[in-house]
């Protein structure tokens, strides 16, 4: 028998809260439809690709006194992509709703991610299985994977597996790419009269799967609180030792929501925001000069220490490097089957790449340290792009700031000490015990996903809104997946994908950082959040992120 920690024993007992509209029971619901929707961009192209599922309305649920008898259903569930705290509770909420609707209903979990529905690898969930994973972190209940559901052969195999199990609905728990695949599968099933619905659930700790209907993706709350605890610990250490600069890279390749949220929770001396770098067209030299200025000024104040937060994806937001990486992605895709390139020594590969890039991008590539060049040429990610998480941007910045300070010391304009430590917080936050917020939110998303299936919907994303209010006042419903789509270039071709939500520089969250940036740089207004609290007063245990509070407060002010 698996040993349980004292915390896990107690967390298994926690009963997540539901919105009042769902708390009355899955068989006591009414559904209200809003206006028809359209995609955020490229409407004609998206409409052409999703003829059967495009333009559906946003829906909301309310409780009703009219109890309906629910027919027997078999449902399948998939965990897709990287882990995020709360995934197990999505499945638990789905399971509880399904069994409450009809005790004969069955829930099948496909093993190892989307490949499970293709290969027919699954388990049937039982009370015992579900009860062992309630309110826990990780995706180990059935495992996850990054297989894409996008080919005719895959769809045919998935259909056959579902027919064999009598499955009439599939719930895909994933991020923007996983839910793009959910939309494609939903469209295919409708087009082939398969009688199988597909519903998505918004997961990603990066926080970039959000819009007016999806206020936050699950896992963001827990992950950022986990990172904030770690950053707070280092802030305390730096303030105690007073001799180290800590350069901390944080998860978040395509958007800086994680870094921004952690900054608001901890108030470090320097916070880089990728979107700001891109909009202001800041060069690598400008970034280094700005950081060096803060380091030098603090040294003049007798403070040879500090904390700098660096987003994981920063390097490809720097204009000259972004251009080079884009050119490099296309070049490497073209060289994928080139044996001369594949068999070449490292330096020879560098020369081949330089010769293929345009002159400006070639010059940028040549200027980078060998370590960074090596990391740029590592295996591509599933989208055919550079694996930015493997580029040690924090080390590059330390090296360049150190060189700039050495130059200033020679000129007599700097007389401080610079000793730097580097960190990367990524995996530390992906499987943490979910916060009370994520435990409640995820359970509601799963429960709500079954409500969408019960009302016959497909191609929808489970949506729970008004999240800065108490859980009883949350608003449950669904948003069409096509509503969030646009066309983007992947592997050299334009494909429909859910549009990522980037940090808005004119939004309330960034403005809060901007307002305090200079003060935090020099006055050491450090906050030490400590660990996530699960037991105690609501204002300690049920708090939401600063991001959610600021965004929802701005909405209320606007109204």
Task: Give a description of the structure.
There is one protein chain. The chain is α/β, with parallel strands linked by helices and 559 residues long. It has two domains: 25-36 and 52-219 and 434-480, Rossmann fold (3-Layer(aba) Sandwich), CATH 3.40.50.450; 220-430 and 507-553, Phosphofructokinase domain (Rossmann fold, 3-Layer(aba) Sandwich), CATH 3.40.50.460. The protein has helices at 6-11, 20-23, 43-49, 87-101, 115-119, 127-131, 152-165, 176-191, 220-241, 257-266, 274-279, 284-300, 319-334, 339-342, 346-356, 359-367, 370-376, 393-411, 427-430, 436-454, 508-523, 538-541, 546-558; strands at 29-36, 57-63, 74-79, 106-110, 122-124, 167-174, 197-202, 245-250, 270-271, 306-311, 420-425, 460-465, 475-480, 485-490, 493-498. Strands 1-2-13-12-7-6-3-4-5 form a nine-stranded mixed β-sheet, with helices on both faces. A four-stranded parallel β-sheet has the order 9-10-8-11, with helices on both faces. Strands 14-15 form a two-stranded antiparallel ribbon. Strand 6 (167-174), helix 8 (176-191) and strand 7 (197-202) form a beta-alpha-beta unit. Helix 10 (257-266) packs across helix 21 (508-523) and helix 13 (319-334) crosses helix 16 (359-367). The radius of gyration is 25 Å and the shape is globular. The termini are far apart.
